[in-house]
Design goal:
The protein is mainly α. It is built from 18 helices and 7 strands. The protein has a 3-stranded antiparallel sheet with strand order 1-2-3. A two-stranded antiparallel ribbon has the order 4-5. It comes from Rubroshorea leprosula. This is Endoglucanase. InterPro entries: 6-hairpin_glycosidase_sf, 6hp_glycosidase-like_sf, Glyco_hydro_9, Glyco_hydro_9_Asp/Glu_AS, Glyco_hydro_9_His_AS. Pfam families: Glyco_hydro_9 (PF00759).
Amino acid sequence: MAFAMFSLVVQIVFLTIWFLSLLCYGFTSHDYSDALEKSIIFFEGQRSGKLPPNQGMTWRGDSGLSDGSGYHVDLVGGYYDAGDNVKFGLPMAFTTTMLAWSVIEFGSSMGSQIENAKDAVRWGTDYLLKAATATPGTLYVQVGDPNNDHKCWERPEDMDTQRNVYKVTTQNPGSDVAAETAAALAAASIIFKESDPSYSDKLLKTAVKVFDFADKYRGSYSDSLNSAVCPFYCSYSGYQDELLWGASWIYRASQNSLYLTYIQSNGRTMGSEDDDYSFSWDDKRAGTKVLLSHEFLTKDTQEFQVYKGHSDNYICSLVPGTSNFQDQYTPGGLLYKASASNLQYVTTTTFLLLTYANYLSANRGVATCGTSTIPPEKLIAQAKKQVDYILGDNPEKMSYMVGFGEKYPQHVHHRGSSVPSIHQHPDHISCNDGFQYLYSSSPNPNVLVGAIVGGPDNKDNFADDRNNYQQSEPTTYINAPFVGALAFFSKNVSPN
């Protein structure tokens, strides 16, 4: 009898904890709106250059004010990609493309954050315009030597490492980084078309020129720049995917039939018919197929019907129970692709799920998986699981967005966040002196609000350790697609 009573008590306690956990992570539209605001302000923490008066991440200061000067070119501005102080062109351009795509698809759900989101895009495009127009036949693609930068632990305001400038040219091409830059400029031209038509026109015209450069002088920037970009941001997928991606964005922005012809003529040889199951700063194939499916689903443009089928294959690979399912999920339900910075794949996948759901809904369509079909609502539910996991509905009960929720990473692998702010400690902190903060057990003194870190392993375990960069380092390209996902749920979830 005593054992039965004890068993009943245990069951009641278990059910109570389970019910309370549901209440705890029953995110409301307000929660998603709060996360959206934080996800955008994060980009202010990654800014390089002269900071504006309305800078919200106030512990940051001006940095990189002479970038490019030694090469007689103005390359001030742009974003640091992650926790270091290098401006890598390929991930920066992809970040900008995804921020712009977030505004294009979900800007109507951003409310008061729409201007902040557009400012984040513009900070990227202002820099990319400089990089693309400074010298004819040249695209500047990087500022900072990553090998030397990674030997230091310095806040960006104190950088004293050499700010080498790297470029691709007609003799040393970089079709991948150039075509991604073209995609970013073209996508951004769409969101500024009404509010700033002259800027929009400049973006699109520059996108066309950069794309022509990328297409005419073909080659991978990894081959041209070698150790300056590898192994950090090697173009492992080659440059064909970026060429099709760039052409697709220019077509979306301009509706110029020349790019329709280009897509039709080159799609097959550029991997459009390969079913690829990841989407990242390196591999654009899945994103391109979803982007092009928009033309078929919302405009009934038959030339793009094939991309609907390929998008279905991609989407079906994500959904357990379908004949095409082939992805891996952690025991807690997180999509798992890689041991380092896994959340970059989660946020891009989530974005594509929601974007494709929008396209299907607009055409009353479904995703076809063999003999079964998946309605848009199921794609949205699948995306919501990933968003909620990142925000705290996971076995660790940890929000992987810094500053959101009650428990989030305190030891983020990020120089500026981990070293005392220049406002609190105005004296110069040199390259080697900064390592005391990398190895410190104390929480980061500056909260990098909105940053999404690399995330847990395949068993849902997370080490809040500054030295474990695979899990604790944030990047701009993790956050950028998540901006769109959070905007969607901020307007499509009923308050509790």
